[in-house]
Write a structure and sequence with these properties.
The protein is mainly alpha-helical. The chain has one domain (6-169): dinb family like domain (Four Helix Bundle (Hemerythrin (Met), subunit A), Up-down Bundle), CATH 1.20.120. It is 55% helix and 9% strand. The chain contains six helices and three strands; from the N terminus they run ααβααββαα. The chain has helices at 6-25, 44-63, 84-104, 107-110, 128-153, 166-169, and strands at residues 66-68, 113-118, 121-127. Strands 1-2-3 form a three-stranded mixed β-sheet. It is globular, with a radius of gyration of 17 Å.
């Protein structure tokens, strides 16, 4: 009987979601970087950069045991990419780092806890695998969904993520 490990499950899901995220990011037009569908919304470029930078956050869940948002010495993503090429290069770099970290990990490490804090306030305390799933993948999927709405509002064909999109079917 073959059983699948926590690590294998996360890697399989991550492979699928990274491919989908790449397809959305490839369509983000840098020429419309300042676009906002609403005054309270992030700009298109802020949102696309956030989706990419979340990959570094997921890597932190694998490699570290905690992160304090108030720690001035904590790792932070690099400067905001200033071109589509830079955005995609960062996506590729951060994706590879995350996948390498997960491949170097194992189920035992992924069941150890990760704590996210803001000073003394505990924001999250979960097993690393759960943190990856909830604060990592779900968070990224949420923002990728927002990004796909921005594409739709800009009349840019939206890629199908879990089946063909209306653009790919020629519907609507």
């Amino acid at each position: 009987m073959h059983t699948s490990s926590l690590q294998q499950n996360i890697l399989a899901e991550l492979d699928h979601e990274l491919a989908n995220t790449r397809r959305v990011l490839e369509r983000v037009p840098f020429e419309q970087a300042d676009y906002k569908p609403h005054p309270k919304s992030m700009s298109l470029w802020q949102l696309a950069s956030h989706v990419v930078n979340l990959l570094a956050f997921k890597t932190l869940f694998v490699n570290a045991n905690s992160r304090d948002f108030l720690d001035p010495n904590a790792p932070k993503p690099g400067p905001t990419p200033t071109s589509h090429e830079q955005l995609m290069a960062r996506f590729d770099e951060y994706s590879k780092t995350l996948l390498d970290s997960l491949h170097s990990s194992d189920d035992e490490k992924l069941t150890k806890h990760f704590q996210l804090t803001r000073g003394e306030q505990v924001l999250m305390d979960r097993p690393k695998g759960a943190a990856l799933r909830i604060m990592g993948l779900n968070h990224s999927i949420h923002h990728r969904g927002q990004l796909s709405v921005y594409l739709r509002l800009l009349d840019i064909p939206v890629p199908g993520l879990y089946g063909p999109s209306a653009d790919e079917q020629g519907a609507f």
